[in-house]
Design a protein that fits this description.
286 residues; alpha+beta; five-stranded mixed β-sheet; 18% helix
Length: 286
């Protein structure tokens, strides 16, 4: 195992290296944890209204780059779409066009919430996943370019084509997680991985690293679990305290203590699809 991997194993999402390290201004945010190996799995807390959609937030690092409003062909497969001017959808918008967007994202394996017609945070995460998988700069706006991307079936190349018919691939470079079934990508989601900085929190210091390598899901913990660095939802552990899990905060930048954060609604689908022992391949660099 590489030094990078060993550091991640020691730190996990909450198991820090017990060595002095200065606190940094750009430390990972709270809400990313792991499992305490000496006490077993943390108690699962009640999850009332667990998938209540949070208020749409604006990422300060994302600068607006509006998509041009112009005449474009009808969007194939979108009911009610016709040639003409297509408006740009933005977080906070409501209506039938948003509902159509959510349905199309769901059909493409990017979105797993309800098509309720509100451009909320879970919808924005799905749009980011689509845009990144098509080689686009992730933005919150949905215009002709993004609608066209929904029509394309091909995205990024597999990281490990011979990794197994059923597997999970995590790209640190693109901050994407892809679930394969029968060698076909059936779920693609935006994620946020380890920030790759030193951190000191609550008297513990470590390195926020998501390890690169070949792993397998070792254990699953349903619902919310709690530990020293915060909480995580529907966790699938693949190396010590390192897990894929749902989170209320999944920014565009790598921001975790080492875990792979996913949108809450998507984490429900991933948790139900992925089994213990399933291969997990992590590749790339941030």
């Amino acid at each position: 195992m590489s030094i990078r991997g060993m550091a991640a194993l020691a730190a996990g999402c909450f198991l820090p290296l017990l060595a002095a390290a200065p606190a940094l201004a750009d430390e990972p945010s709270q809400g990313d944890t792991g499992v305490q190996t000496d006490t077993g799995v943390p108690a699962v807390q009640a999850v009332p209204d667990v998938l209540r959609m949070p208020e749409v937030k604006t990422d300060p690092e994302v600068k607006a780059e509006p998509e041009e409003v112009k005449r474009v062909p009808a969007v194939k497969g979108v009911k009610g779409s016709r040639p003409g001017r297509i408006g740009v959808l933005r977080p906070g918008d409501r209506g039938e066009e948003v509902r159509q967007l959510q349905r199309r994202l769901r059909d493409g394996g990017f979105y797993f919430g309800q098509a309720h017609g509100v451009y909320d945070e879970q919808t924005r995460y799905a749009v980011w996943g689509l845009q990144k998988s098509r080689g686009m700069v992730p933005r919150g706006e949905v215009g002709p370019k993004t609608w066209a991307a929904l029509r394309r079936t091909k995205g990024l190349r597999p990281l490990v084509p011979q990794g197994g018919a059923d597997r999970v691939e995590i790209s640190l470079t693109h901050q994407l997680l892809t679930v394969y079934r029968d060698n076909r990508p059936v779920l693609v989601t935006h994620v946020s991985t380890g920030a790759e900085v030193q951190y000191c929190e609550k008297g513990h210091c470590g390195n926020a690293v998501t390890p690169v390598g070949d792993f397998r899901v070792t254990r699953k913990a349903p619902g919310w679990t709690q530990s020293r660095l915060g909480s995580m939802f529907n966790s699938l552990y693949f190396l010590g305290g390192i897990a894929m899990h749902g989170s209320t905060e999944v920014p565009l930048r790598p921001a975790s203590h080492g875990c792979v954060r996913m949108p809450l609604s998507t984490s429900v689908r991933v948790y139900n699809m992925v089994k213990e022992g399933e291969p997990v391949y992590v590749r790339g660099e941030i």
